Amino acid sequence: MAERHKITIVGAGNVGATAAHWAASMELGDIVLVDVVEGMPQGKGLDLLEAGPIGLFDARIEGTNDYAATAGSDVVIITAGLARKPGMSRDDLMKTNAGIVKPVTEQIVRYSPDAVLIVVSNPLDVMAYVASVTSKFPRNRVVGMAGILDTARFRAFIAEEAKVSVEDIQALVLGGHGDSMVPLISCTTISGIPVTEFIGREKLEQIVQRTRDGGIEIVNLLKTGSAYYAPSAAAVQMAESILKNKRRVLPCSALLDGEYGISGVFCGVPVILGAGGIGKIIEVPLLPEELAALRKSADDVKTNIGKLDIS
Ligand code: TXD
């Protein structure tokens, strides 16, 4: 019989622990939660394990400070790093989180050389680049989580406005995970019907702006941290598509090599996610202004990468 899948989640904070919860309840595999804080990942891991008999899921869940326990993971979700507080941009986290993501990636590669890395730490597209350069993994095995979250926010707001089920909203948000993200109204439908049939242009523009500000809206409400339910659900959706080889078409941050005329930078684009990570990067025909916005977004990421001392 096939072994169960193994998922490591680095960073047992809000996003990491909640991702463990989603993954366990979906029975995606056995879970290792790693953090630098002593006792905390062990405590959360044990607590989640003890929820199994109530939630009726079978999963081995182990919290640890030691990477040896992560050996042979199929998927590793990296959430280690600081989260935003009010007044902070994602970019403010850059140097600190690069100093965390780099050694974390080194440890992961040492014990799980064949894993697919799902990067969550912010600023997302730059941290995915740090993980990519540090791991030296092929580009299909390093993927950043942002587009699913941004798209989910967009879909949630559209569903609310149109008063229809979130299940029927298809949408695509591309670009970097920041103020220059590119929600594509041209690709947004409600069960295949253009969204413009349901919501006027002006209201849609407001929804686009609320989506761009979706992260800070929650930071300002929470005051002590940033969003974690939707971000963790998004990371786990990516893990599921990889582990079950579902080949879902999802917006993810990928290292581009000429796609959309962009190279050497992580940027949110639609990809096919399946066994082994990214199966294909899809090039959607974009309107000239959408393409320009995507390239501008990639340029912003490139400028930030240039501020870091990594290569
Ligand atoms: O869309 C997205 N990509 C994001 C990104 C959406 C939401 C959150 N996003 C970012 O994820 C956020 O800006 C942060 O950079 C990370 C994690 O957010 P989270 O809300 O989970 O932060 P917490 O609760 O502070 O948890 C971070 C944990 C905490 O327990 C630290 O002790 C741990 O990271 N940490 C480490 N773990 C392992 N190894 C090292 N070196 C380490 N340093 C800190």
Main β-sheet: number of strands, strand sense, barrel status? 6 strands, parallel
- The CATH level-2 architecture of the largest domain is identified as Alpha-Beta Complex
CATH topology of the largest domain: L-2-Hydroxyisocaproate Dehydrogenase, Chain A, domain 2
Summarize the helix and strand pattern as letters. Answer: EHEHEEHEHEHEEEEEHHHEEEH
Q: How much strand?
A: 15-25%
Please specify the SSE layout and strand pairing:
Layout: E1 6-10, H1 14-25, E2 30-34, H2 40-55, E3 61-64, E4 75-78, H3 94-111, E5 116-119, H4 124-135, E6 142-144, H5 147-162, E7 169-170, E8 173-174, E9 182-183, E10 189-190, E11 193-194, H6 201-212, H7 214-222, H8 229-243, E12 248-257, E13 263-274, E14 277-281, H9 288-307
Parallel strand pairs: 1-2, 1-4, 2-3, 4-5, 5-6
Antiparallel strand pairs: 7-10, 8-9, 10-11, 12-13, 13-14
Helix pairs in contact: 1-2, 1-8, 3-4, 5-6, 5-8
The structure holds 1,4,5,6-tetrahydronicotinamide adenine dinucleotide.
1,4,5,6-tetrahydronicotinamide adenine dinucleotide is lined by residues 10-16, 34-37, 79-84, 93, 97, 100, 104, 120-122, 124, 145-146, 149, 177, 225-228, 231.
